[in-house]
Specification:
Blueprint: H1 24-39, E1 44-46, E2 56-59, E3 67-77, E4 81-86, E5 96-101, E6 103-109, E7 115-121, H2 122-135, H3 146-161
Antiparallel strand pairs: 1-2, 2-3, 3-6, 4-5, 6-7
The structure holds nickel (II) ion.
């Protein structure tokens, strides 16, 4: 189990760097990330959330296989957008409706260095865009207006103080 960094930790706002080597260290990180994500009942997790500023994220959406994205690049997003209530293991107990493109085409490498390209829609597209944001230091609450964000941060602080988050 890895420590999950929470809202307020500076690392969540930093840009992650490219993975230079597809080595055992990377595979160990990915494996530990899957354990940590499953423990937290998450469907996605990005390396900066566990204190590693590398361009790595994983997903495990219901009905889909577990996926690993290393050095991902978003090639295309749909013009069509949709709203979905998002949460994040780094901001427990907080949820908000977020507008994002409904579909995405992404290119990445898996943990063994195999390149792939993927067209995703629905919840998988949503997770990909949310996790890819983490690699650029962006949290889902950064995608609501300032007033709403202030309210969500306040709510989170109150939950932390009460020991719920
Ligand atoms: Ni997140």
């Amino acid at each position: 189990m890895l420590k999950i960094y929470k809202l307020g930790d500076e690392i969540l706002h930093k840009k992650a760097s490219m993975v230079p080597d597809f080595d055992q260290t990377l595979r160990d990180l990915v494996e530990a990330m899957f354990e940590t994500m499953h423990q937290g009942d998450g469907i996605g997790l990005a390396a900066p959330q566990v204190g590693v500023l590398k361009r790595v994220f994983i997903s495990n959406v219901t009905g889909d296989e577990p996926r690993v994205f290393i050095n991902p690049e978003i090639l295309r997003t749909s013009i069509e957008q949709s709203t979905y209530e998002e949460g994040c293991l780094s901001i427990p107990e907080i949820y908000a409706d977020i507008l994002r493109p409904s579909a995405v085409t992404i290119q990445a490498w898996n943990e063994r260095g195999k390149p792939f390209r993927l067209d995703a829609e629905g919840l998988l597209a949503r997770v990909i865009l949310h996790e890819n944001d983490h690699l650029n230091g962006i949290l889902f609450i950064d995608r609501v207006n300032a007033k709403k964000r202030k309210r969500l941060v306040k709510l989170y602080d109150r939950k932390v103080k009460n020991g719920c988050a």
